[in-house]
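Morning F.,

Quick status update on the modeling queue. The single chain you submitted on Monday has been processed. Sequence for confirmation:
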Amino acid sequence: MSYTSFAVNDSNAIKVWSQEVAVAERETSDIAKLMGEDADSIIQVKNDFSKTNGKGDQITYTLRARVGGKGFTEGQTAQGNARALSFYNDSVLINELGQTVGVKPKNTIDQQRVPMDLRSEGRDGLAEWWKDRKSVCFFNHACGYTVANTESDTSGAVFTGHNTVVAPSSTRQLWAGSATTDQGLTSADTFTVSLIDRAKELAMLGDNIVAPVMIGGQPKHVMYIDPSQVTSLRTNAGQGGWLDIQKAAIMGGQTTGNAIYTGALGEWNNVILRQSQDITLGVHSSAGTAVSNTRRAVLLGRQAAVCAYGGANQYGPMKYRWSEEIFDHGRLLELGAWSIWGMKKCRFNSVDFGTIVVSTYAARQG
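Structure tokens below.
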């Protein structure tokens, strides 16, 4: 005996709802403002599988290092003394990730009793879930929160974008005050504007700098800080304090309409400040455990991270697959939003390419 049902979804609903989930997640996600396919994006989206209709679960990408050497002048022979180009590779893994919710469909007493459309609420809830999960994965990598690699209810591969989190490289991390480890931070080592300057200085030193992104023709970095670190900044009313940061934001062009400025706290020294509750705790340098009352702010430049999606399919521009399963004679409905994807920070030649981690003491309220 066979059954036919069109009570909830038909052949068009799957594709349409997949696209709606993608749009809702993209419009509400803070880090979506950082994402783009070009190399000038902070999170570069890799659609290599989609473009080639290829198979596989890993994308390898390449960085060309800056050309060094003295160069040549009068009386010196250039021929035969050329320098070789240096290339470094990194790769990102992709895997399946999804979430499901259970609701009561139309023509049930449960739907009859409430004014909202439970199926639509399920779609919106799954879009929010994807928004939250992507943000957690990104900051676990950007902050070098290696604690996230341990499999548990709140950590593991599904919280790291299917890629192992790597600790900040030694030349891409600094601490408030005189501390040299996260566990060495004290209550006096809070977030101040001077740390923005120190991070910016560190980003612009060396052969391979943390390159800024271009916004309105101006080079800018973006820095994410925890809400508790925001409080530390707000309580500093002196020179280089909160009022100066707000003034710099307006003078720096916060009204230009660029998405990165939308919702920004302000700007200082060409660093756009944003906040996120997903900024991670510090990590004990020897035990590898989380350090309470600390947070790892992070300054970001171009290609700080990559986000990759699986091959071409019918499920919309952000590669979501929408699923609906009906049970118990049409009285139970499960909704699902799925993607084949991966995320990690860029790291070449054992050096973080686009991140500077700034650890401070930060005690959250409550």
